[in-house]
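Worked example (supplementary).
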Amino acid sequence: MIEINNIHKSFGDHKVLEGISGKFEAGVTNLIIGGSGSGKTTLLKCMIGLHQPEQGSVTYDGREFTGLNFDERIEIRKEIGMLFQGSALFDSMTVEENIMFPLNMFTDHSYKEKLERVNFCLERVNLEGKNKLFPAELSGGMKKRVGIARAIAMNPKYLFCDEPNSGLDPKTSIVIDELIKEITEEYNTTTIVVTHDMNSVMGIGDYIIFLHEGKKFWEGSNKEIAKTDIQELNDFVFASRFMKAAKGKL
Amino acid sequence: MNFTNFGRYILLLKAVFRKPEKTRIYMKSIFQQMVFIGVGSLGLIAIISTFIGAVMTLQIAFQLVSDFIPKTIIGQVNRDSTILELSPTISAIVLAGKIGSAISSEIGTMRVTEQIDALEIMGINAPGYLILPKILAGITMVPILVIIAMALSIGGGYLGGTLSGAVSAAEYIQGITSDFNPYTINVALTKAFVFGFIITSVPAYEGFFVKGGAVEVAQASTRAVVVSCISILACDYIVTQLML
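After joint prediction of all chains, the assembly is encoded as:
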């Protein structure tokens, strides 16, 4: 479980996050949603230590993270897998080398054992046999799947996904969403997905935090999200014509 | 570089010299960088050094109009200028353009495409993993390149002088072998070591802290070359002052 408590973050005079708190349980897909500039990616970066919040704390299964220095954070970071918005694959390495990279750095396994793990991860994301391709040779959806394969290579306890569907067609988006949900349930990971895609929200949102202008406006599940009377949330949820049309049926 | 940047540069270097996670992986990266910096720059350094040596000989001969000055001086002046100043400094400035811009844009692109964030999330010391092999390769290979540049520049002087008839082969060889002070080699190699550090660490710093996109990466690359060149010239003066 990951717990965030009263997170505040500013850039200069601009307050990006104001007192965000929440509990993200293991084995369920947790979503942080909100419009552009609502602070969701900043919150994610505060949680994984890429930004230092001015106030507040982040704990991983009771272990305080925010106050730790780089060396002290390493043990927790070894348990974190992250899928970046742009996949962030190392473009000078092949798919195999990308996935093997954390194994090379932190394990003493033989090459054969590492290769078995790489192939298992590739199989898990339906990319068997793509070991020798470079990121430049992959489609957007394939890059995301390699990103997921790299993120799960070390059997992470915590999985973070930043806009996993951005730039993908609706069909591939559903594949990625389902993959994230399957991995979360299969390995009992604490998964946090930052998204503004309503398909993801309705499809995999077991626990959702809605951010608006740096504040937490609402929390709940995808079953409850369409039944609130919070204006800002309704404006976000029913922004598209499709959602407006489906409003009565949700 | 203002004081804030200099402070950040020192803090980055502190992170660079942290204990590596896996020495074997760092060693592989060091050898790759040595090939890139050393072998990859050999052709350029060879061409530039040979021509500079040849041109230097012709210019020294042109300026020595008095019959009272022996022509062996041409070789002597060429040798000392080459060893003490031209080979280390010109090579370093050329390498700052070639290697510095490559290092800055490589690391800058990794920053804007979140590859550096990915390293940090994995618990890897990104400055150490990305920059340490480059610095170690730089301080090893730049002195070797400078030694090669010295030899080729003196050889180029021989070719330029004898082919043009500005100096005879015997006079040139007598010039480069007389009154040689081996200490000048120490000065040159000290400069090369310092320049190797600057050429790799300054562009790495510029690339590491890039914010934005392609335009900012390009700007950082330009800034890396400019700051490296100025730092090379400043350190050139300091080392010369301290050692001579």
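Two points are worth noting when inspecting this output. Chain A has two domains: 1-79+158-169+190-250, 85-155. The domain at 1-79+158-169+190-250 of chain A is CATH 3.40.50.300 (Rossmann fold).
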